[in-house]
Amino acid sequence: MTAMSIGKAWEEAVAFVARERSLLFPVALLFVALPGLILQEMTPPELATWRMDKGAMPDIPASFMLSTLIGVIIIWFGSLALFALALRPGISVGEALRLSFSRLPVLLGTALVVIGVLLAIAIVGMMVVVAFSMVAKPVAAALVMLLLAGGGAVMLFASVRLLLLNPVVIDGNEGVMASLRHSWALTRGHFWRLFGFLLVLTLLSAIVGSAAQVIFGLVGRLVAGAEGARLVGGVAAAVVSTVVQVYMLVMIARLYRQAEAD
């Protein structure tokens, strides 16, 4: 097994994005940035306040939950289309969108499987906590903290091991379970390299997005006051973060090709 080359993936991604930016960025802005921005604007004020204050969680309208689900599905659809463009040079945007639509049910199925497994683990953990709480409450409290930390570690581990799931889904004809097994196998032995890659790209996206929000927010405040600052800053952050995501997705596609060649 040869080590994945992040540097090679970056060089290939930069060259590919420079060559195909007229195809990639419209798809990313329409199906990734725009749904995210709409969801941001639809977020109930009390929910936004809760996120900042960490108080008791308010009631969330069912319409917002449904909108969030639809928004996430659209973003996944757009991501699959971007992977199709990155993995199949010469494919048109229309062909990429049709391929994405045909493979989207498989991606949704894998998400349901993963969520089901995580829920099962959480239920078992809660049952253990309840059992211990009947014997010794201090032990149960410590166990809750341990299980929360363990749950976070499991989710992080799974997200890294399944990093190549989207390219596996869009590049092949496998079903739900076969796609999960294939993606898991491709990342075997590459966990720490992929973890570092994800960490760096996530931090970079957060930093440049926040910087864009602050800078353009100041401009928006000068033009239209506080509401203008919020809207212009949010749009700028979404656009800049989407640009970073395009490079990240293309890099993941190149890493997938490296893993497939092993």
UniProtKB/TrEMBL annotation:
InterPro entries assigned to the protein according to its UniProt record, in alphabetical order: DUF7847 (IPR057169)
Annotated ranges, domain DUF7847: 4-258
Domain of life: Bacteria
Name used for this protein in its record: Glycerophosphoryl diester phosphodiesterase membrane domain-containing protein
Membrane-traversing stretches: 64-85, 106-133, 139-164, 191-219, 231-256
Tagged with keyword Membrane: yes
Entry keyword set: Membrane, Transmembrane, Transmembrane helix
